[in-house]
Amino acid sequence: MAESEVFVWVASELESRTHLSRLEARGTVRLVLKDAGLDPTSVAAYQMDVVLKRLMAAALSKRKVNDAAALCAALAQALKESAAGSSPSRETAYDVFERLEGGGSKT
Amino acid sequence: MKYVILIGIGLFLLTSLVVGTRLVFLYLRTRKLPELLMAIALLCTGFLAFAVGSASKILIDGTPALRSGMTVLGLSVEYIGDAALALFAWRVFHADKRWSRVFITALAVLGVGAFAGELWSGEYLRYSDPEPITGLWVPGALLVRGLAPTWLAFECLRFHAQLRRRVRIGLADPIVMQRVGLWGLAMTASAGAYAVPIAHRLAYGTGIREHVWAISIVSALAMVTALSIGLAFFPPRKYRERMRSLSPRD
Fold first, then answer.
1. Pairwise CA distance, residues A98 & B136, whole Å
2. Which pLDDT tens digit goes with each residue over A29-76?
3. Residue whose C-alpha is closest to residue B213's, from B234, B233, B199, B230
4. Chain A residue nearest residue B18, CA to CA
5. Does A83 touch chain B (CB under 8 A)?
6. A103: nearest Cα among B35, B17, B236, B174
7. Rounded distance, CA B53 to CA B74, Å?
8. Which of B22, B30, B166 sits opposite A37 (nearest CB)?
9. A47, A54, B80, B165: which is deepest, by most CB within 10 A?
């Protein structure tokens, strides 16, 4: 199963902006996403934005990446402006269960 | 005891009917497949199959042909509902994965095979009479029909664990997280309601109505299913507020 465009974009940016190898960059993003309860195959841009702002910096610091907080803020900004950040997200299991209620507020 | 058993099963029938009907209306608004599939599953397996099956066992004291027809009708409806449940699990959690297409095809083949086997062997009549089974078609078919709720229970509970982590960073609504957990609990109880008659058939050869303890367990599981689905679909205001308080504050 292929990873989402957002996952590929962030892993590739980490690889090019840090000393991490391709394998290390992808592995780091995978682990952080798992911690956040997210799946690399379906992670959406708005979810990656939160992950970059709240979880990624700590994970990168552990891997001796310099100024991880600033790097994550820059990545979050760049993601918003990238094609990956604006790609339409498909319906997820979360969207379905959000609708499954008697009030029917989510349509 | 009889009344307690009836309350559990009655609550299950009522919840399936009400939530299933509400899901039909939700589908008419959204035109999204998952709500239609879950509506079919609840109305067929939860309400119609149970109602027709019970009628063929309890209310119909008529000709064998009538009882046989009712049993086939009830079973057909139950297989349709189970198929809808399996399709829901596939469509919601794994629609774009190759292994899931193989898995759902295998489930369909097993379902058709189990139903054909029950009809061919004549063992389907054992659902509506007190005769013991002579082969393994009935427990085998019950096992096949129990696969759909078992699969959906596994997927919901796995997704619930993921959502618990998402709630901590503000990426999921606690009410949705809890709703997924409740559907997981409902499907676990539903799978258990298949496991009890399988074990009973293997041990005694007859249906669960031969033993009060067996029908009591199924009734309790039906009650758990009904209450879980009811709470997931119609969360009371206080429960909603308590769930909202789990959201991160920043």
1. 41
2. 999 999 999 999 889 999 999 999 999 999 999 999 999 999 999 999
3. B199
4. A102
5. no
6. B236
7. 5
8. B166
9. A47
